[in-house]
Design brief:
Layout lengths: L17 H5 L8 E11 L10 E13 L29 H10 L10 E5 L11 E7 L5 E9 L5 E6 L6 E5 L13 E6 L6 E9 L2 E14 L2 H10 L3 H18 L18
């Protein structure tokens, strides 16, 4: 089986807010999500009148950064998690890098858990359009969410979010992702709690229009070795497939003469690199 160590759920503090007390406890085991990613582009006033939508099936891992899963000997190439694939420095663990990013911005998760939803590295390759980190304080309350976004140019950006009780959050767009969108506007997001049915929505709002919406919907299952192998067989070399599909869609939009927005110089965030 995939090697993990169960982690007890921290006891909630007596003075936790009603919203925090009502939130479901995060899971104590590694999960695999069978999911579907959907992208939708809509025409905007005074902009290109072009509709485009596509969806594709994926599987994603929900892992506790204190006890990352390990495949049995000889199967490590099927799924693995490495610090170089996420924000921070490869010399530290993923957990230490996320905690450091939060601490530099006044968020304390010492003694709390951090759960990450992401693609695993498969056969030496990984691509994560988005990794979601649910970051819990020592008393078990959700302190923040870090939405870590990667583009196809090898760059990354992390959005520090403080969602409301329903999982809604907003953030100004600060990162070049698609070559067909300017770096402006505001993301309207919503995240389901980790562990249950997965629902993540990111809608880009520019002026009075919503030209782009991405959704991620999925169903969890325990991440046993058998489940991981079945997921690999359903979606072989999935991170490579996701990267290729995004590029194919970009070529299709370019072929339809959608104007390309020049990529600005990327300035890495402190603690992200």
């Amino acid at each position: 089986m995939v090697s993990t160590v169960p982690v007890p759920t921290p006891r909630r503090a007596p003075d936790a807010t009603p919203a925090a007390r009502a939130a479901p406890a995060p899971p104590t085991q590694t999960l695999l999500y069978d999911a579907v990613v959907s992208h939708a582009r809509r025409p905007v006033p005074d902009g290109p009148h072009l509709d485009n939508a596509f969806s594709y099936a994926v599987h994603m891992w929900l892992v506790d950064l204190d006890v990352l899963p390990r495949m049995p000997r000889g199967l490590g190439w099927v799924a693995g998690f490495e610090a170089r694939d996420h924000l921070g420095t490869p010399e530290l663990s993923i957990r230490a890098n996320v905690a450091s990013f939060l601490a530099a911005r006044g968020v304390d998760v010492e003694g709390g858990r951090i759960l990450m939803l992401a693609n695993a590295r498969v056969a030496g390759y990984v691509f994560n359009p988005i990794s979601v980190h649910w970051c819990y304080a020592a008393d078990g309350t959700l302190a923040a969410i870090v939405a870590e976004v990667h583009n196809t140019y090898g760059e990354r950006h992390a959005y520090l979010l403080r969602p409301d009780a329903s999982g809604r959050a907003q953030a100004d767009k600060d990162f070049y992702v698609s070559p067909f969108f300017t770096v402006d506007g505001r993301y309207l997001m919503r995240f389901s709690p980790p562990g249950g049915p997965l629902s993540v929505t990111m809608a880009l709002r520019q002026g009075d229009a919503t030209p782009f919406t991405a959704t991620l919907r999925g169903t969890p299952r325990p991440a046993t070795t058998v489940a991981a192998l079945r997921a690999f067989l359903r979606h072989p070399f999935m991170p490579l497939r996701v990267s290729a599909l995004i590029r194919v869609q970009g070529i299709k939009l370019w072929a339809r003469r959608l104007p390309v927005v020049r990529r600005p110089r990327h300035v890495p965030q402190e603690g992200v690199q």
